[in-house]
TrEMBL record:
<keyword id="KW-0548">Nucleotidyltransferase</keyword>
<dbReference type="InterPro" id="IPR007634">
    <property type="entry name" value="RNA_pol_sigma_54_DNA-bd"/>
</dbReference>
<keyword id="KW-0240">DNA-directed RNA polymerase</keyword>
<feature type="domain" description="RNA polymerase sigma factor 54 core-binding">
    <location>
        <begin position="121"/>
        <end position="306"/>
    </location>
</feature>
<feature type="domain" description="RNA polymerase sigma factor 54 DNA-binding">
    <location>
        <begin position="320"/>
        <end position="478"/>
    </location>
</feature>
<dbReference type="Pfam" id="PF00309">
    <property type="entry name" value="Sigma54_AID"/>
</dbReference>
<dbReference type="Pfam" id="PF04963">
    <property type="entry name" value="Sigma54_CBD"/>
</dbReference>
<keyword id="KW-0238">DNA-binding</keyword>
<comment type="similarity">
    <text>Belongs to the sigma-54 factor family.</text>
</comment>
<keyword id="KW-0805">Transcription regulation</keyword>
<dbReference type="InterPro" id="IPR038709">
    <property type="entry name" value="RpoN_core-bd_sf"/>
</dbReference>
<dbReference type="InterPro" id="IPR000394">
    <property type="entry name" value="RNA_pol_sigma_54"/>
</dbReference>
<keyword id="KW-0731">Sigma factor</keyword>
<dbReference type="Pfam" id="PF04552">
    <property type="entry name" value="Sigma54_DBD"/>
</dbReference>
<keyword id="KW-0808">Transferase</keyword>
<keyword id="KW-0804">Transcription</keyword>
<protein>
    <submittedName>
        <fullName>RNA polymerase factor sigma-54</fullName>
    </submittedName>
</protein>
Length: 480
């Protein structure tokens, strides 16, 4: 079979995203921290970018860009692409569009950022770990090097709650010592601060704390901890009253003592640090309306600079210069587009969720991405990206932008109620319940029906209650 070469014309359609467009999309979904890091990296890599004080307008970028074109027009060679082509290919006007409305004017001192007077040292501090805290105490005690090695091995086998997750025989083998020696040092470690750390079971943890507090002289308390923690947790009190010949008041005293103990002594030294949120947008009430302010703190203001000599340069330098200037100009205008998109989305959210901003979470309405996208004439994917990892400070607290999008539940009068509003009502109802007679899920369904006219299933109420980290009515019930 002979092989031959043929030429064939074929017309196809492909959707190709330029690197500049990919960068603009990436900027939309960046958080403030990621955005600052990205800008700092671009400042290091692009010699035509520089940081300036103040807030340069987008027109200044175009003017600066035009000046660079004029200064280099005389020395531009035929090869490569010209600065005019770069500016033309950007199609900035079609890409940026116009704001739906300009933000309300307000003086800088009228709405001062809540973070202006907070230094970084007041927000972040080095936190001691459980291992460091225990080893610090051991080094201040009279332990030998061999004993410190065994204790360090014990501490190294603790989990995040402070429990020992290794057999004594394994520690003895690892430290080349006896199990009796490890047991002796474990006894001392368990009595360090926090008391009860390195325990192997919850019973052992509580018993160590009882011993240190001198409560171990009461045999009833010790036996309750050793053998009846499950009965206490499930509120099976009658068998305990008969066994120990107690009345409810006395048993309640024992329960108060047990509840004052810490079953997870190492949890306060957890390695997971809290997440500090800096809002991207502030929404302030003003004269019956709302003012939207973008938080540009710590985000550098960029402009194009012209530091290259005006003399003759090689074709490689020209090509490098053209690409870097185009990249810098696109970055500046993409950042401006990000600001405009964020403002539009928040402005639309305020319009749709005005009752929330006026009255609170109870009045949160159903909202989907399509509603915002149609209102601001953008694609749903753009709205989804700009609401990712973005937070807004409202009169009722700081919320992620995605919080305002929630599903709808139909009421009897034909209106729709947001799922987040239902969750807020469930939380409020449980907060006002009688601890001795808590509200069951069925009762919550009836109350929601009366309150907002929503016919909601019991399993849906249970799902919302679980999402709020609220236990069932049997576990919330107080027997005293």
């Amino acid at each position: 079979m002979a092989l031959e070469l043929k030429q064939q014309l074929k017309q196809t359609q492909q959707l190709l995203m330029s690197p500049q467009l990919q960068q603009a999309i990436k900027l939309l979904q960046m958080s403030r921290l990621e955005l600052v890091e990205h800008i700092q990296q671009e400042l290091l890599e692009n010699p035509f970018l520089e940081e300036v004080q103040g807030s340069p307008e987008l027109s200044d970028v175009d003017e600066n860009f035009s000046e660079l074109n004029e200064n280099r027009a005389s020395s531009e060679a035929d090869e490569g692409y010209s600065f005019e082509e770069i500016n033309k290919n950007g199609d900035w006007e079609d890409y940026l569009g116009e704001l739906s409305s300009a933000p309300k004017t307000s003086s800088a001192h009228e709405y001062e950022s809540i973070e202006d007077n907070n230094f970084i040292e007041t927000r972040y501090a080095e936190k001691s770990s459980l291992d460091d805290h225990l080893m610090w105490q051991l080094r201040l005690s009279s332990f030998t090097e061999e004993e410190l090695d065994i204790c360090e091995n014990i501490i190294g086998n603790l989990d995040s709650c402070g429990y020992l997750r290794a057999e004594l025989s394994e520690i003895a083998e690892a430290t080349r010592s006896s199990a009796e020696k490890v047991e002796e040092l474990l006894y001392k470690v368990q009595r360090l601060d926090p008391v009860g750390v390195a325990a192997r079971t919850p019973q052992e943890c509580l018993l160590v704390q009882v011993e240190v507090l001198k409560y171990d002289r009461d045999p009833v308390l010790v036996e309750l901890i050793k053998y009846h923690l499950t009965d206490l947790e499930t509120h099976r009190y009658k068998p305990l009253l008969r066994k120990f010949h107690l009345d409810m008041e006395t048993l309640k005293e024992y329960l108060d003592i047990i509840q004052s103990l810490d079953p997870m002594p190492g949890a306060s030294f957890g390695e997971s640090e809290p997440l500090y949120v800096s809002p991207d947008v502030y929404v302030f009430p003003s004269d019956g309306d709302f003012v939207i302010l973008l938080n540009d703190e710590d985000i550098p203001n960029l402009r194009l600079n012209d530091f290259l000599d005006k003399g003759n340069v090689s074709a490689e330098v020209k090509d490098f210069t053209n690409k870097k200037i185009a990249s810098a100009s696109w970055l500046i205008k993409s950042l401006e587009q990000r600001k405009r998109t964020l403002y539009k989305v928040v402005e639309s959210i305020v319009k749709f969720q005005r009752s929330f901003f006026e009255e609170g979470v109870d009045k949160l309405k159903p909202l989907i991405l399509k509603d915002i996208a149609e209102d601001i004439e953008m694609h749903e994917s753009s709205v989804s990206r700009i609401t990712t990892n973005k937070y807004v400070s409202t009169p009722h607290g700081v919320f992620e932008l995605k919080f305002f999008f929630n599903s709808a539940l139909s009421s009897d009068n034909g209106d729709s109620v947001g799922s987040e509003s239902v969750k807020a009502l469930i939380k409020k109802m449980i907060g006002k319940e009688d601890p001795k007679n808590p509200l069951a899920d069925e009762k919550l369904c009836e109350l929601l029906k009366q309150e907002i006219g929503v016919d909601i299933a019991r399993r849906t109420v249970a799902k919302y209650r679980t999402a709020l980290n609220i236990p069932s009515s049997s576990k919330r019930k107080q027997r005293f």
